[in-house]
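pinned: reference chain
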Amino acid sequence: MLFLLLLSACSRLPIGTPVYNLDPTVTSNPNATPTLTPFGPALESNTQVTPPAASLSGSPTLSITPTGSSTPHPLTAFVPATYILNVTLDYAGHNLAVDETIDFPNSTAETLNNLVLAVEPALWKDCFAPSDTTINGKTVGIDLTGDRLEIPLSAPLLPDASLEFYIHYDLHLPATDIYHIFGYNARQTNLVDWYPFIVPYVSGQGWLLHAPANVGEHLVYDDQIFKMTLHLTDPRLQVLVAASSQAEEISYGWYFHIGHIRSFALSLSPDFQTDSTDINGVKVTSYYFDSEKAQGQAVLAEVAKAIVTFGDLFGPDRYSSLDIVETRYYDGMEYDGLFFLGQDFFTTENGTVLNDLIDIAVHETAHQWWYGSVSNDQALEPWLDEALATFSERLFYERNYPDVTAWVAFRIDAYHPSGWVDADIYHAGDSRAYTNAVYLRGEQFLQTLRERMGDITFFAFLKDYAAQMAGKRATSADFFRILRTHTQANLIDIISVYFQNPH
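pinned: its C-alpha coordinates
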Protein backbone atom coordinates (compact mmCIF):
# COMPACT_ATOMS: atom_id res chain seq x y z
CA MET A 1 0.00 0.00 0.00
CA LEU A 2 1.33 3.43 -0.89
CA PHE A 3 0.88 6.20 1.64
CA LEU A 4 1.21 9.89 0.94
CA LEU A 5 3.62 11.98 2.93
CA LEU A 6 2.01 13.24 6.12
CA LEU A 7 2.51 16.88 6.97
CA SER A 8 3.56 18.13 10.34
CA ALA A 9 0.26 20.06 10.49
CA CYS A 10 -0.23 23.53 11.90
CA SER A 11 3.24 24.93 11.35
CA ARG A 12 2.64 28.37 9.87
CA LEU A 13 5.62 28.60 7.54
CA PRO A 14 8.42 26.35 6.31
CA ILE A 15 11.86 27.43 7.36
CA GLY A 16 13.23 30.11 5.07
CA THR A 17 9.83 31.57 4.15
CA PRO A 18 9.88 35.35 4.66
CA VAL A 19 8.33 36.01 8.06
CA TYR A 20 6.96 38.96 9.97
CA ASN A 21 9.23 41.27 11.91
CA LEU A 22 8.44 43.81 14.56
CA ASP A 23 11.28 46.13 13.56
CA PRO A 24 10.06 48.54 10.85
CA THR A 25 13.62 49.64 10.05
CA VAL A 26 14.62 46.24 8.68
CA THR A 27 14.14 45.83 4.94
CA SER A 28 13.09 42.56 3.40
CA ASN A 29 14.90 40.53 0.78
CA PRO A 30 12.63 40.64 -2.28
CA ASN A 31 14.41 37.62 -3.76
CA ALA A 32 14.04 35.37 -0.71
CA THR A 33 12.97 31.85 -1.64
CA PRO A 34 11.35 29.46 0.83
CA THR A 35 13.31 26.33 1.66
CA LEU A 36 10.71 23.58 1.44
CA THR A 37 10.23 20.97 4.11
CA PRO A 38 10.20 17.31 3.03
CA PHE A 39 6.40 17.55 3.26
CA GLY A 40 5.43 20.64 1.33
CA PRO A 41 4.42 20.94 -2.32
CA ALA A 42 6.67 22.51 -4.93
CA LEU A 43 6.89 26.27 -4.62
CA GLU A 44 4.88 28.17 -7.18
CA SER A 45 6.84 31.04 -8.67
CA ASN A 46 3.86 33.20 -9.66
CA THR A 47 2.71 34.04 -6.15
CA GLN A 48 0.80 37.30 -5.86
CA VAL A 49 1.29 37.77 -2.16
CA THR A 50 3.34 40.65 -0.77
CA PRO A 51 5.35 39.07 2.05
CA PRO A 52 5.53 40.71 5.47
CA ALA A 53 8.53 42.74 6.37
CA ALA A 54 11.61 40.64 7.02
CA SER A 55 13.17 37.55 8.51
CA LEU A 56 14.17 37.40 12.12
CA SER A 57 17.79 36.80 12.98
CA GLY A 58 18.94 35.24 16.21
CA SER A 59 16.81 35.01 19.32
CA PRO A 60 13.86 37.39 19.55
CA THR A 61 13.24 39.94 22.22
CA LEU A 62 9.90 38.78 23.55
CA SER A 63 7.38 41.51 24.15
CA ILE A 64 6.41 40.96 27.78
CA THR A 65 6.10 44.50 29.04
CA PRO A 66 5.44 45.25 32.71
CA THR A 67 2.83 47.99 32.99
CA GLY A 68 0.95 47.47 36.22
CA SER A 69 1.52 47.77 39.93
CA SER A 70 2.72 44.70 41.77
CA THR A 71 0.19 45.06 44.55
CA PRO A 72 -1.80 41.80 44.62
CA HIS A 73 -5.56 41.85 44.43
CA PRO A 74 -7.67 38.85 45.52
CA LEU A 75 -9.46 38.02 42.29
CA THR A 76 -10.76 34.49 41.99
CA ALA A 77 -11.73 34.13 38.34
CA PHE A 78 -10.75 35.30 34.90
CA VAL A 79 -13.49 37.32 33.16
CA PRO A 80 -13.32 37.27 29.35
CA ALA A 81 -13.42 40.44 27.28
CA THR A 82 -16.35 40.91 24.91
CA TYR A 83 -15.62 41.77 21.26
CA ILE A 84 -18.39 43.38 19.22
CA LEU A 85 -17.67 43.87 15.51
CA ASN A 86 -19.77 45.46 12.79
CA VAL A 87 -18.17 44.45 9.48
CA THR A 88 -18.90 45.45 5.89
CA LEU A 89 -17.14 43.32 3.28
CA ASP A 90 -16.53 44.31 -0.32
CA TYR A 91 -15.90 40.76 -1.49
CA ALA A 92 -14.93 41.62 -5.05
CA GLY A 93 -12.78 44.57 -3.97
CA HIS A 94 -11.12 42.60 -1.13
CA ASN A 95 -11.79 45.30 1.46
CA LEU A 96 -13.38 45.33 4.90
CA ALA A 97 -14.65 48.26 6.94
CA VAL A 98 -14.81 47.37 10.64
CA ASP A 99 -16.18 49.04 13.74
CA GLU A 100 -14.81 47.10 16.71
CA THR A 101 -15.67 47.59 20.37
CA ILE A 102 -13.95 45.70 23.17
CA ASP A 103 -15.49 45.61 26.63
CA PHE A 104 -12.42 44.80 28.71
CA PRO A 105 -12.74 43.87 32.40
CA ASN A 106 -9.50 44.04 34.35
CA SER A 107 -9.26 40.66 36.02
CA THR A 108 -5.45 40.69 36.03
CA ALA A 109 -5.22 41.42 39.77
CA GLU A 110 -3.01 44.41 38.95
CA THR A 111 -3.55 48.08 38.13
CA LEU A 112 -3.01 48.64 34.40
CA ASN A 113 -1.49 51.76 32.85
CA ASN A 114 -1.83 50.68 29.22
CA LEU A 115 -3.33 48.08 26.90
CA VAL A 116 -1.46 46.01 24.33
CA LEU A 117 -3.24 44.47 21.34
CA ALA A 118 -1.99 42.11 18.65
CA VAL A 119 -2.80 43.35 15.14
CA GLU A 120 -1.65 40.69 12.69
CA PRO A 121 -2.98 42.44 9.55
CA ALA A 122 -0.55 45.29 10.29
CA LEU A 123 2.26 42.93 9.27
CA TRP A 124 1.02 43.08 5.68
CA LYS A 125 1.96 46.09 3.59
CA ASP A 126 -0.89 48.61 3.33
CA CYS A 127 -3.42 46.19 4.81
CA PHE A 128 -4.41 47.70 8.16
CA ALA A 129 -5.69 51.30 8.13
CA PRO A 130 -6.96 52.50 11.54
CA SER A 131 -8.77 55.78 12.10
CA ASP A 132 -10.97 56.61 15.10
CA THR A 133 -9.92 55.19 18.47
CA THR A 134 -11.60 55.94 21.78
CA ILE A 135 -11.67 54.68 25.35
CA ASN A 136 -14.94 55.20 27.16
CA GLY A 137 -15.94 57.62 24.40
CA LYS A 138 -12.82 59.80 24.61
CA THR A 139 -10.34 59.95 21.73
CA VAL A 140 -7.01 58.30 22.45
CA GLY A 141 -3.76 57.95 20.60
CA ILE A 142 -2.19 54.65 19.65
CA ASP A 143 1.34 53.44 19.05
CA LEU A 144 1.49 50.76 16.34
CA THR A 145 4.80 48.99 15.72
CA GLY A 146 4.66 45.82 13.66
CA ASP A 147 1.78 43.82 15.08
CA ARG A 148 1.94 45.51 18.49
CA LEU A 149 -0.64 48.22 19.17
CA GLU A 150 -0.11 49.98 22.49
CA ILE A 151 -2.62 52.35 24.08
CA PRO A 152 -1.59 54.42 27.10
CA LEU A 153 -4.41 54.92 29.59
CA SER A 154 -5.12 58.44 30.82
CA ALA A 155 -6.14 57.00 34.18
CA PRO A 156 -5.01 53.68 35.69
CA LEU A 157 -7.45 50.80 35.31
CA LEU A 158 -7.93 49.27 38.73
CA PRO A 159 -8.54 45.56 39.34
CA ASP A 160 -12.19 44.63 38.82
CA ALA A 161 -12.78 47.85 36.84
CA SER A 162 -13.54 47.80 33.13
CA LEU A 163 -13.26 50.00 30.08
CA GLU A 164 -14.68 50.19 26.56
CA PHE A 165 -12.20 50.47 23.71
CA TYR A 166 -13.43 51.38 20.22
CA ILE A 167 -11.53 51.40 16.96
CA HIS A 168 -12.52 51.82 13.32
CA TYR A 169 -10.23 50.32 10.70
CA ASP A 170 -10.22 49.21 7.10
CA LEU A 171 -8.53 46.03 5.90
CA HIS A 172 -7.19 45.92 2.35
CA LEU A 173 -6.71 42.21 2.03
CA PRO A 174 -3.58 40.69 0.49
CA ALA A 175 -3.63 37.96 -2.11
CA THR A 176 -2.75 34.63 -0.57
CA ASP A 177 -0.26 32.02 -1.68
CA ILE A 178 0.33 28.43 -0.54
CA TYR A 179 2.12 29.65 2.60
CA HIS A 180 -0.49 32.09 3.91
CA ILE A 181 -4.18 31.63 4.69
CA PHE A 182 -5.11 35.24 5.47
CA GLY A 183 -6.46 37.18 2.48
CA TYR A 184 -8.10 36.24 -0.79
CA ASN A 185 -7.56 33.97 -3.75
CA ALA A 186 -9.57 33.34 -6.90
CA ARG A 187 -12.10 31.15 -5.08
CA GLN A 188 -12.41 32.39 -1.50
CA THR A 189 -11.65 34.99 1.15
CA ASN A 190 -10.11 33.84 4.44
CA LEU A 191 -10.11 35.92 7.62
CA VAL A 192 -7.82 34.51 10.30
CA ASP A 193 -6.19 36.45 13.15
CA TRP A 194 -7.73 39.42 11.40
CA TYR A 195 -9.01 41.73 14.13
CA PRO A 196 -7.07 43.47 16.90
CA PHE A 197 -7.29 41.62 20.21
CA ILE A 198 -6.00 42.33 23.69
CA VAL A 199 -3.18 39.92 24.44
CA PRO A 200 -2.98 38.00 27.73
CA TYR A 201 -1.51 39.69 30.76
CA VAL A 202 0.92 37.71 32.94
CA SER A 203 0.71 38.82 36.54
CA GLY A 204 3.99 40.31 37.71
CA GLN A 205 5.44 40.33 34.19
CA GLY A 206 3.23 42.22 31.76
CA TRP A 207 1.58 41.83 28.37
CA LEU A 208 2.31 38.63 26.48
CA LEU A 209 3.04 39.24 22.80
CA HIS A 210 5.81 37.22 21.16
CA ALA A 211 7.66 37.93 17.95
CA PRO A 212 6.89 35.72 14.93
CA ALA A 213 9.41 33.02 14.01
CA ASN A 214 10.23 30.87 11.00
CA VAL A 215 8.31 27.90 12.41
CA GLY A 216 5.25 27.41 14.56
CA GLU A 217 2.72 29.87 15.91
CA HIS A 218 3.61 32.87 18.04
CA LEU A 219 0.27 34.21 19.28
CA VAL A 220 -1.20 33.48 22.70
CA TYR A 221 -4.92 33.92 23.35
CA ASP A 222 -7.22 34.41 26.30
CA ASP A 223 -10.81 33.30 26.17
CA GLN A 224 -13.16 35.93 24.75
CA ILE A 225 -16.83 36.47 23.97
CA PHE A 226 -17.37 37.33 20.31
CA LYS A 227 -20.29 39.02 18.55
CA MET A 228 -20.20 40.07 14.91
CA THR A 229 -22.56 41.42 12.28
CA LEU A 230 -21.27 40.84 8.74
CA HIS A 231 -22.77 42.52 5.69
CA LEU A 232 -21.77 42.36 2.03
CA THR A 233 -21.59 45.55 -0.02
CA ASP A 234 -23.16 43.64 -2.93
CA PRO A 235 -26.41 42.07 -1.65
CA ARG A 236 -26.77 40.14 -4.93
CA LEU A 237 -23.62 38.12 -4.30
CA GLN A 238 -24.36 34.58 -3.18
CA VAL A 239 -21.62 33.22 -0.91
CA LEU A 240 -21.40 30.53 1.72
CA VAL A 241 -19.65 31.29 5.00
CA ALA A 242 -17.65 28.83 7.07
CA ALA A 243 -16.95 30.22 10.52
CA SER A 244 -15.96 29.51 14.11
CA SER A 245 -19.64 29.42 15.04
CA GLN A 246 -22.92 28.93 13.26
CA ALA A 247 -24.48 32.05 11.76
CA GLU A 248 -27.90 33.59 12.06
CA GLU A 249 -28.92 34.96 8.67
CA ILE A 250 -29.99 38.60 8.66
CA SER A 251 -30.82 41.05 5.88
CA TYR A 252 -27.89 41.00 3.44
CA GLY A 253 -25.63 39.29 5.91
CA TRP A 254 -25.04 37.19 9.00
CA TYR A 255 -24.88 37.54 12.77
CA PHE A 256 -22.45 35.47 14.88
CA HIS A 257 -22.36 35.11 18.64
CA ILE A 258 -20.15 32.71 20.56
CA GLY A 259 -18.79 32.75 24.08
CA HIS A 260 -15.49 31.33 25.27
CA ILE A 261 -13.47 31.30 22.09
CA ARG A 262 -9.79 32.05 21.45
CA SER A 263 -10.03 33.62 17.99
CA PHE A 264 -12.84 33.91 15.46
CA ALA A 265 -12.01 32.76 11.91
CA LEU A 266 -14.10 32.56 8.77
CA SER A 267 -13.91 31.74 5.08
CA LEU A 268 -16.29 32.92 2.37
CA SER A 269 -16.74 31.65 -1.17
CA PRO A 270 -19.37 31.65 -3.92
CA ASP A 271 -17.96 28.27 -5.01
CA PHE A 272 -18.26 26.26 -1.80
CA GLN A 273 -20.20 23.03 -1.75
CA THR A 274 -21.08 21.49 1.60
CA ASP A 275 -22.05 18.32 3.39
CA SER A 276 -22.94 18.18 7.08
CA THR A 277 -23.55 15.74 9.88
CA ASP A 278 -24.48 16.04 13.55
CA ILE A 279 -22.46 14.05 16.05
CA ASN A 280 -22.35 14.29 19.85
CA GLY A 281 -24.19 17.61 19.70
CA VAL A 282 -21.68 19.08 17.23
CA LYS A 283 -22.72 20.13 13.73
CA VAL A 284 -19.80 19.23 11.45
CA THR A 285 -19.73 20.76 7.96
CA SER A 286 -17.29 20.06 5.16
CA TYR A 287 -16.68 22.99 2.78
CA TYR A 288 -15.04 21.93 -0.46
CA PHE A 289 -14.95 22.79 -4.15
CA ASP A 290 -16.93 21.01 -6.85
CA SER A 291 -14.24 18.61 -8.09
CA GLU A 292 -13.50 17.32 -4.57
CA LYS A 293 -16.96 16.16 -3.51
CA ALA A 294 -15.94 12.57 -2.74
CA GLN A 295 -12.98 13.73 -0.67
CA GLY A 296 -15.08 16.35 1.11
CA GLN A 297 -17.54 13.66 2.14
CA ALA A 298 -14.78 11.24 3.16
CA VAL A 299 -13.08 13.72 5.47
CA LEU A 300 -16.43 14.62 7.01
CA ALA A 301 -17.06 10.99 7.98
CA GLU A 302 -13.64 10.57 9.58
CA VAL A 303 -13.82 13.85 11.51
CA ALA A 304 -17.15 12.70 12.92
CA LYS A 305 -15.42 9.55 14.18
CA ALA A 306 -12.65 11.68 15.68
CA ILE A 307 -15.14 13.81 17.61
CA VAL A 308 -16.65 10.67 19.14
CA THR A 309 -13.22 9.25 19.96
CA PHE A 310 -11.87 12.42 21.54
CA GLY A 311 -15.11 13.11 23.37
CA ASP A 312 -14.84 9.70 25.03
CA LEU A 313 -11.18 10.13 25.93
CA PHE A 314 -10.87 13.86 26.73
CA GLY A 315 -14.40 15.05 27.53
CA PRO A 316 -17.06 16.85 25.45
CA ASP A 317 -16.17 19.21 22.62
CA ARG A 318 -16.62 22.78 23.88
CA TYR A 319 -17.95 23.98 20.48
CA SER A 320 -21.37 23.31 19.00
CA SER A 321 -20.05 23.34 15.43
CA LEU A 322 -16.90 22.46 13.50
CA ASP A 323 -16.23 23.55 9.91
CA ILE A 324 -13.68 21.83 7.65
CA VAL A 325 -12.50 24.18 4.90
CA GLU A 326 -10.57 23.37 1.74
CA THR A 327 -8.16 26.11 0.77
CA ARG A 328 -5.04 26.82 -1.25
CA TYR A 329 -2.50 26.16 1.49
CA TYR A 330 0.36 23.72 1.92
CA ASP A 331 -0.77 22.25 5.25
CA GLY A 332 -3.53 22.20 7.84
CA MET A 333 -4.27 24.98 10.33
CA GLU A 334 -6.57 25.01 13.34
CA TYR A 335 -8.83 27.72 14.70
CA ASP A 336 -11.71 27.56 17.14
CA GLY A 337 -14.59 25.64 15.60
CA LEU A 338 -12.94 25.64 12.17
CA PHE A 339 -9.83 24.33 10.47
CA PHE A 340 -8.31 24.58 7.02
CA LEU A 341 -6.90 21.74 4.92
CA GLY A 342 -4.66 22.21 1.92
CA GLN A 343 -6.16 21.65 -1.51
CA ASP A 344 -3.37 19.21 -2.38
CA PHE A 345 -4.66 16.93 0.36
CA PHE A 346 -7.95 16.68 -1.49
CA THR A 347 -6.58 16.26 -4.99
CA THR A 348 -4.01 13.60 -4.01
CA GLU A 349 -6.22 11.67 -1.57
CA ASN A 350 -5.71 7.95 -2.21
CA GLY A 351 -8.92 6.40 -0.93
CA THR A 352 -7.37 4.92 2.22
CA VAL A 353 -7.73 6.17 5.78
CA LEU A 354 -3.99 6.77 6.16
CA ASN A 355 -3.31 9.78 3.98
CA ASP A 356 -2.72 13.49 4.37
CA LEU A 357 -6.37 14.44 4.10
CA ILE A 358 -7.60 12.16 6.88
CA ASP A 359 -4.62 12.18 9.22
CA ILE A 360 -4.17 15.94 9.25
CA ALA A 361 -7.93 16.44 9.59
CA VAL A 362 -7.82 14.23 12.69
CA HIS A 363 -4.87 16.27 14.01
CA GLU A 364 -6.73 19.55 13.52
CA THR A 365 -9.87 18.11 15.11
CA ALA A 366 -7.80 17.25 18.19
CA HIS A 367 -6.80 20.90 18.39
CA GLN A 368 -10.37 21.73 19.34
CA TRP A 369 -9.33 20.26 22.72
CA TRP A 370 -5.58 21.03 22.67
CA TYR A 371 -5.48 24.71 21.64
CA GLY A 372 -9.17 25.63 21.71
CA SER A 373 -10.40 24.36 25.06
CA VAL A 374 -6.99 24.02 26.75
CA SER A 375 -4.84 26.89 25.53
CA ASN A 376 -1.08 27.30 25.95
CA ASP A 377 1.80 29.55 24.99
CA GLN A 378 2.27 28.37 21.41
CA ALA A 379 5.64 30.12 21.07
CA LEU A 380 7.41 28.98 24.23
CA GLU A 381 5.62 25.70 24.97
CA PRO A 382 4.22 24.44 21.67
CA TRP A 383 4.42 20.80 22.75
CA LEU A 384 1.37 21.28 24.96
CA ASP A 385 -0.88 21.47 21.91
CA GLU A 386 1.16 19.92 19.08
CA ALA A 387 2.43 16.81 20.87
CA LEU A 388 -1.03 16.15 22.29
CA ALA A 389 -2.67 16.64 18.89
CA THR A 390 -0.19 14.25 17.26
CA PHE A 391 -0.68 11.70 20.03
CA SER A 392 -4.42 12.07 19.46
CA GLU A 393 -3.89 10.85 15.89
CA ARG A 394 -2.57 7.59 17.36
CA LEU A 395 -5.63 7.29 19.58
CA PHE A 396 -7.94 7.87 16.63
CA TYR A 397 -6.35 5.10 14.57
CA GLU A 398 -6.23 2.74 17.56
CA ARG A 399 -9.91 3.25 18.26
CA ASN A 400 -11.23 3.22 14.70
CA TYR A 401 -8.62 1.22 12.74
CA PRO A 402 -6.94 -0.97 15.38
CA ASP A 403 -3.82 -1.87 13.35
CA VAL A 404 -1.98 1.30 14.27
CA THR A 405 1.48 0.01 13.29
CA ALA A 406 1.32 1.51 9.80
CA TRP A 407 0.51 4.94 11.25
CA VAL A 408 3.38 4.71 13.74
CA ALA A 409 5.85 3.55 11.09
CA PHE A 410 4.99 6.26 8.64
CA ARG A 411 4.05 9.23 10.82
CA ILE A 412 6.67 8.77 13.54
CA ASP A 413 9.39 6.17 13.00
CA ALA A 414 10.19 6.98 9.36
CA TYR A 415 11.70 10.33 10.41
CA HIS A 416 13.85 9.01 13.27
CA PRO A 417 12.74 11.90 15.47
CA SER A 418 15.19 13.55 17.82
CA GLY A 419 15.40 16.73 19.85
CA TRP A 420 13.86 18.08 23.02
CA VAL A 421 10.09 17.99 23.35
CA ASP A 422 10.08 21.29 25.23
CA ALA A 423 11.83 23.23 22.45
CA ASP A 424 10.37 26.65 21.69
CA ILE A 425 9.76 28.03 18.20
CA TYR A 426 12.88 30.23 18.34
CA HIS A 427 15.45 27.54 19.14
CA ALA A 428 14.04 24.32 17.67
CA GLY A 429 15.80 24.70 14.32
CA ASP A 430 14.24 24.37 10.90
CA SER A 431 10.81 22.95 10.17
CA ARG A 432 12.01 19.35 10.05
CA ALA A 433 13.90 19.62 13.34
CA TYR A 434 10.99 21.47 14.98
CA THR A 435 8.49 18.83 13.86
CA ASN A 436 10.74 15.96 14.93
CA ALA A 437 11.23 17.38 18.40
CA VAL A 438 7.87 18.92 19.31
CA TYR A 439 5.37 16.82 17.37
CA LEU A 440 7.02 13.42 16.96
CA ARG A 441 9.22 13.12 20.03
CA GLY A 442 6.32 14.68 21.89
CA GLU A 443 4.07 11.86 20.71
CA GLN A 444 6.69 9.30 21.75
CA PHE A 445 6.89 10.87 25.21
CA LEU A 446 3.14 10.66 25.73
CA GLN A 447 3.01 7.05 24.54
CA THR A 448 5.93 6.12 26.81
CA LEU A 449 4.20 7.87 29.72
CA ARG A 450 1.02 5.96 28.95
CA GLU A 451 2.86 2.62 28.95
CA ARG A 452 4.49 3.39 32.32
CA MET A 453 1.24 4.48 33.96
CA GLY A 454 -1.18 2.03 32.34
CA ASP A 455 -4.23 2.99 30.33
CA ILE A 456 -6.68 3.39 33.21
CA THR A 457 -4.49 5.78 35.16
CA PHE A 458 -3.15 7.61 32.11
CA PHE A 459 -6.53 8.37 30.55
CA ALA A 460 -7.96 9.40 33.91
CA PHE A 461 -5.13 11.92 34.11
CA LEU A 462 -5.64 13.16 30.55
CA LYS A 463 -9.36 13.70 31.08
CA ASP A 464 -8.69 15.47 34.38
CA TYR A 465 -6.08 17.71 32.75
CA ALA A 466 -8.56 18.62 29.99
CA ALA A 467 -11.27 19.40 32.58
CA GLN A 468 -9.12 21.41 35.00
CA MET A 469 -7.52 23.52 32.28
CA ALA A 470 -10.60 24.04 30.09
CA GLY A 471 -10.89 27.72 29.23
CA LYS A 472 -7.48 28.42 30.74
CA ARG A 473 -3.92 28.80 29.50
CA ALA A 474 -2.01 25.70 30.56
CA THR A 475 1.71 25.50 31.22
CA SER A 476 4.09 22.58 31.47
CA ALA A 477 3.95 23.08 35.23
CA ASP A 478 0.17 22.57 35.12
CA PHE A 479 0.57 19.41 33.04
CA PHE A 480 3.05 17.81 35.43
CA ARG A 481 1.27 19.07 38.55
CA ILE A 482 -1.96 17.37 37.53
CA LEU A 483 -0.07 14.31 36.29
CA ARG A 484 1.51 13.73 39.71
CA THR A 485 -1.88 13.68 41.40
CA HIS A 486 -2.71 10.57 39.37
CA THR A 487 0.37 8.43 39.81
CA GLN A 488 3.07 7.64 42.35
CA ALA A 489 5.24 6.07 39.66
CA ASN A 490 8.78 7.37 39.32
CA LEU A 491 8.72 9.20 35.99
CA ILE A 492 11.98 11.13 36.18
CA ASP A 493 13.82 8.72 33.90
CA ILE A 494 11.19 9.20 31.18
CA ILE A 495 10.95 12.95 31.57
CA SER A 496 14.70 13.50 31.55
CA VAL A 497 15.05 11.62 28.25
CA TYR A 498 12.55 13.84 26.46
CA PHE A 499 12.80 17.23 28.21
CA GLN A 500 15.72 19.62 28.29
CA ASN A 501 14.22 21.24 31.39
CA PRO A 502 12.51 18.42 33.33
CA HIS A 503 9.67 19.26 35.70
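why pinned: Residues 375-498 form a domain with the Neutral Protease; domain 2 fold (CATH 1.10.390.10). Residues 1-6, 12-76 have pLDDT under 50 and may be disordered.
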